[in-house]
Structure formats: C-alpha cells, structure tokens
Amino acid sequence: MAMLELKCSICGAEAKFRSRNEAIKEGWSWLSIRLGKKRYKAVFCPKHSEDEAMSWLDNHVLNEVKAVI
C-alpha cells in the first residue's frame, strides 16, 4: 500500500500516513482556493491554527495574482 507523504506549506514539517483519514485524525488539514480556472491547495500540520493556515493561503494566492497583473 502506498503511503501518503505530506509536507506542511508553512513550516515544512513532513509526515507519512497510511490514509488521508489517518492524517486528519493526527490533526493535518487541507485548504484550497479556486480563482478562475486555477486551484491553489495547501497542506498544514497540527502546529498551525485554521486561521493561520487560511491567512497563509490567502497571502500566497494574493502574491501570485499580483505577479501576474
């Protein structure tokens, strides 16, 4: 069985899990934002709050959009 390898988008922490459900039980989370046809995704370890993760993703997407404009 293939392992699910995750890397936190904020701090770079890495972990391996047998399934997505196992990762969720350990506190890992996924967030995504769709902007037009492009989808931005990020993975966050248990060290980061949902607000911190959403703020990071918003800033990351905003910086990419500014680079295009």
Characterize the biggest β-sheet.
2 strands, antiparallel
Question: Terminal Cα separation, in Å?
Answer: 44 Å
Derived from helix and strand composition plus strand pairing, the structural class reads alpha+beta
Integer-rounded radius of gyration: 13 Å
Strand content: 25-35%
Q: Which H/E pattern describes the elements?
A: EEHEEH
Helix fraction, binned, reads 25-40%
**If you average the pLDDT, what whole number results?**
87
List low-pLDDT spans: none
Strand order of the largest sheet: 1-2
Net shape = globular
Please give the count of helices: 2
- What is the count of β-strands? 4
Written description of the protein model:
With 69 residues, the chain is α+β, with helices and mostly antiparallel strands. Helix content is 36%, strand content 32%. The protein has two helices and four strands. It has helices spanning 20-25, 50-68, and strands spanning 4-7, 14-17, 29-35, 38-44. It has a two-stranded antiparallel sheet with strand order 1-2. A two-stranded antiparallel ribbon has the order 3-4. The longest helix has 19 residues, at 50-68. The chain is globular and about 40 Å long. The N and C termini lie far apart (44 Å).
